[in-house]
């Protein structure tokens, strides 16, 4: 979330809203802000930026999402689509054709055991392996947790929970459902629930926050709301996925061309990932786990890539 693009009816910062928050309840994930982040205008979406300097870009992973984001980079106008790489040559060629990449720079990087790779890595099946996808909480729910950490301004110190595999014929070790209670150093409680079952739920990506003086719903799509004793806001989240990607692409270009490397979002990104791992491990063990214990364990997850040739 980029607080600079908030479009609320009144100035509202994190501390003013929480006012000594009691509970944060995050239900799956979100990248939306309180205002809903309206999509860019049609003219901005359709016209590439005319810039003197071009950044050479190589895209690794040219499947559905990879090809989609590559096209957004191309539409920005500040990038030269220089090379593509995918395990499947036909996928790299298809994306290369769409981006106008020279055939000499379309690479397929893995070979051998093709059937094995096809069953594990295509169609997001790879997220079913914790070592590759960080479990469902780290691959999907992380955005709800990120919203909570943004609102609270810190990461939890303790997690307790439970999780399980519900798929009838599971591939990989990723859990399908999890329920985690995060506790913070000052006693604040953060409840998180996530599920990745094919049960017709329309991807519930939200974070609900309760404070002494108000409450808010931060959503990935749909409605975003805020209520307090003296103010209120209702907004619609429109085209956040693509609009957010376009903003990030433009910001990435600007930071590179202006030699800006501070990247203020990194600390919260690290906190978000560590919080997801803490929740994942506590839920998998059905026990209480502290952040200090998790960091002390320094557990390494190895991916078995025997038989693959680079």
Nutshell version of this structure?
The chain is of the alpha+beta class and 310 residues long.
Q: Could you estimate the helical fraction of the residues in percent?
A: 25-40%
What is the CATH topology classification name of the largest domain? Dihydrodipicolinate Reductase, domain 2
CATH class of the largest domain: Alpha Beta
**Quaternary structure classification:** single chain
The total beta strand count reads 12
Count of helical segments? 11
Distance between the termini: 36 Å
Taken from the alpha-carbon principal axes, the silhouette is globular
Question: How much is the average pLDDT?
Answer: 78
Provide the gyration radius in Å.
21 Å
Going by CATH, the homologous superfamily of the largest domain would be Dihydrodipicolinate Reductase, domain 2
Task: Describe the 3D structure.
With 310 residues, the protein is an alpha+beta fold. The protein folds into two domains: 184 residues, Dihydrodipicolinate Reductase, domain 2 (2-Layer Sandwich), CATH 3.30.360; 63 residues, Rossmann fold (3-Layer(aba) Sandwich), CATH 3.40.50. 35% of the residues lie in helices and 23% in strands. The protein contains eleven helices and twelve strands. It has a nine-stranded mixed sheet with strand order 11-10-9-8-1-7-6-5-12. The chain has a three-stranded parallel sheet with strand order 2-3-4, covered by helices on one side. Helix 3 links the parallel strand 2 and strand 3. Helix 3 crosses helix 9 and helix 8 packs across helix 10. The longest helix is centred in the last third of the chain and has 20 residues. It is globular, with a radius of gyration of 21 Å. The chain starts with 13 loop residues before the first helix and ends in a 13-residue tail after the last helix. The N terminus is likely disordered.
């Amino acid at each position: 979330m980029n607080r600079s693009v908030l479009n609320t009816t009144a100035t509202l910062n994190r501390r003013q809203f929480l006012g000594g928050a009691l509970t944060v309840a995050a239900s799956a994930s979100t990248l939306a802000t309180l205002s809903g982040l309206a999509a860019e205008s049609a003219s901005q979406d359709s016209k590439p930026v005319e810039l003197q300097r071009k950044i050479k870009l190589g895209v690794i992973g040219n499947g559905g999402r990879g090809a989609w984001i590559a096209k957004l980079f191309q539409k920005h106008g500040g990038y030269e689509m220089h090379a593509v790489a995918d395990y499947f040559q036909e996928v790299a060629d298809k994306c290369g054709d769409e981006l106008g990449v020279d055939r000499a720079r379309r690479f397929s990087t893995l070979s051998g055991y093709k059937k094995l790779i096809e069953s594990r890595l295509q169609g997001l099946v790879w997220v079913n392996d914790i070592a590759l996808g960080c479990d469902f909480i780290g691959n999907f729910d992380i955005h709800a947790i990120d919203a909570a950490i943004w609102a609270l301004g810190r990461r939890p110190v303790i997690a307790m929970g439970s999780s399980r595999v519900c798929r009838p014929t599971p591939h990989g070790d990723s859990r399908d459902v999890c329920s985690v209670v995060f506790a913070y150093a000052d006693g604040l409680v953060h409840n998180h629930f996530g599920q990745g079952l094919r049960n017709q739920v329309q991807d519930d990506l939200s974070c609900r926050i309760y404070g002494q003086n108000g409450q808010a719903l931060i959503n990935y799509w749909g409605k975003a709301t805020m209520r307090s004793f003296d103010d209120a806001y209702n907004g619609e989240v429109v085209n956040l996925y693509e609009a957010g990607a376009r903003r990030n692409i433009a910001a990435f270009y600007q930071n590179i061309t202006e030699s800006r490397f501070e990247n203020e979002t990194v600390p919260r990104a690290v906190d978000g990932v560590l919080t997801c791992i803490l929740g994942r491990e506590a839920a998998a063990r059905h026990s209480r786990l502290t952040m200090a214990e998790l960091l002390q364990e320094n557990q390494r997850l190895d991916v078995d890539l025997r038989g693959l040739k680079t």
